[in-house]
Amino acid sequence: MIVVILPDNRVILLMQLGDFPTPRKTYTFKLEIVPKGGIMNYIRRLFRHKGKHKRGRKNRPQEEVQPNHVIWDYPAKTPARQQGVAAEKRATPNVALEALTAPPARKPRYKQVTLPDLAFGSKSFFKDVHTRFIDRFPPVPSVTCEDFCAPAGLAGEWKYYQELPGFRGLFQHLIILNSFSYWDGVETELREADFHPKGFSVKEFVKWDLLRHSSGALFTTQFQALAAPWDKSVLAGAFDHPELVPEPGHFSYYYRFLRPGHYKAFFLALVRECVRYGLIIPRIAVADGVFLRSWAGNFTKDKAGNPTDPEASITVHGKKHFGKGFTTIAFFAWCGTRCLPVFCTTYTGSISEKAVYQETVRDFKSTVQYPWKALAYDLGADSATNRQLTRGEGMICVMPAKESENYGTRVEIGAKRYFFAEDIPDGMSLNKFGRLYDHRTGAESGFSPLDLAYNMKEMSRMGLAAASIHMYKYFTLLLLHALTAYKVNRSDLVMSSKAFTAMVL
C-alpha cells in the first residue's frame, strides 16, 4: 500500500498492489513542504527513472538497410537451371564470414522496475485481487411453465405473461404461486392460547391483510368499503371463502394473538426461498433506517395524562422533525439488478442508530447466516468501534467518514466523499470501494414503495409490536412480488412494486 499524505493529514493518493504473502509492508510518503506546482506532477518527477532509457531512443544510430537479393543480381545468359543453383548459393549466408564482419551486438537496455514505478506507472495489478468480481451478479434464472405455473393451474395465464409485456399480473397469482401453509401451524399454536377463529382461518386472514395493504387501504374501515363493490368471484382459488371480507373487529381480535415472531419466521422463510432460487445472492448487504409514524398523535395524552403510545417517541433526524413513531433498520441484499430485504429490526423513533448499530449487526449475522462479504451503511453509524465490529464480523466496512474525523487515515474518493484507509481491504482499488458505497442507494429504493405503492408509511395501530408486524408485512410483500415474478418467468417484474396488485385483467 502506498499513501501520500499532505501536511494537513489529508490523503490525496492511496494505491494498492494486490495481495501478497505476509508480511506486508506499508510505504507512506508524507510531504512536509507542499510544492507550488501540481502535486501529482511533482510526485511523478520525484520517482521518474532518469536513466539512459529515455535519451537512448533519441540518439540511437539508424542501421543500414540491406537490400534483398533479386533475380538481376545473377550473370546474364545463364541457363535457368544454373540460375536456380546460384540463387540457392546466394540465398544461403556464410555464417562464419558474417560473424567476423558484423558489428558488435548492442547490449539490451533494461529498466529496473521499483515499487514507486508500480504505484505511479501505467501497470496495474488490481485485476488480480480477490475482490475483482465482488459486485458482479448473474441475472435472475429462467423457468418454464411446467416448473410452477402448470402445477398451480395457471398454464393459460402463462401465455399472457410471456406474450404480453404490458401484463403485470394479478394478486390472485401471488397467493396461488406461493405457499402459506406456515400459518396452519401458527393457528394450531394459537388455539392452545384460547384463540377461536371468527369465521376466518389464520392463513385466510393473513391473505386478506396482505390484499388490504396491496390495495393501498390504510384503515380497515377503508378496506371494507373498498371491497364492498368487488366481484369477488375472481378471487376463487386464492381464498377459501372470497365472498367473506374481514371487518374491522376481525383485525382487532386476530392481532390480539398474532405476534411479531410469527411474521418474522414467515419473512425469513421467504428469504431462504429467494436464496435457493437465486433471486438473492448473499454477498453485499446494504442497510438503512426508515421512520414509521404511529397512529398516536405527536403530543396527545389519554384521560390519565399519559402518552397515548408510550413506546413511540418524537423523532428528529438531520434537523428534520418526523413526528412520533418508530425507526426500522433494514438490511437488503444488493444483487446488481435487484435489491431485496433480508432482515429488519424496529426500535422507538428517537433511538440513535450509532448506539444500536452493533446490536443490530450481530442480530443480522446470527439470523441470516450466509457468507456476507461487505456491509454498506450511511454516516449515521460512524464510530471507530462500529467500524471495528463490522470488520471483526468478516465484512468490508463500507461507511463514509466525516471531514473532521481524525481517528483514522482519511481518504477522499470523489468530491467531499471521505472514507478511512483502514476500511479499504488490501488489493481493492479506490474506484471499486467507492462503487460499493454507491450500491447503498438500493436500500433507499427498497423503502420507496412503503409510501408510494402501499400507503404504509403511517400505521393504523399503536405500539412497538404493531410497528414490527407492520414492517414485516411490508417486506413480505416485496419478497412475494419477487418470487411470483420469478415463477412466471418475468424478471422485469422482480423489483416492480405495482405488479400483482390488480384483481382483473
Explain what this protein looks like in three dimensions.
This protein is an alpha/beta fold. 35% of the residues lie in helices and 13% in strands. It has 2 domains: 2-49 and 109-128, no CATH class; 130-505, no CATH class. It is built from 18 helices and 11 strands. β1 (2-5) and β2 (11-15) form a beta hairpin. α12 (260-277) runs parallel beside α18 (464-487). It is globular, with a radius of gyration of 35 Å. The two termini are 60 Å apart. Mean pLDDT is 83; it is low at 18-23, 50-54, 69-74, 83-91 and 122-128.
Main sheet overview = 6 strands, mixed
Distance between the amino and carboxyl termini = 60 Å
Radius of gyration: 35 Å
The proportion of residues forming helix, as a percent range, comes to: 25-40%
Please provide the count of β strands.
Answer: 11
The total tally of domains equals 2
In N-to-C order, the SSE pattern is EEEHHHHHHHHHHHHEEEEHEHEEEHHHH
Q: What is the count of DSSP helices, taking H or I runs of 4+ residues? A: 18
Question: On the 0-100 scale, what is the average pLDDT?
Answer: 83
Produce the secondary structure layout.
Elements (H helix, E strand, L loop, with lengths): L1 E4 L5 E5 L11 E4 L8 H8 L5 H8 L20 H12 L3 H7 L13 H6 L34 H9 L7 H6 L5 H10 L10 H13 L5 H8 L20 H7 L5 H18 L6 E10 L19 E5 L2 E15 L4 E10 L4 H15 L6 E3 L7 H9 L3 E3 L11 E3 L5 E3 L9 H9 L2 H6 L2 H4 L11 H24 L18
Parallel strand pairs: 1-3, 4-8, 8-9
Antiparallel strand pairs: 1-2, 4-6, 5-6, 6-7, 10-11
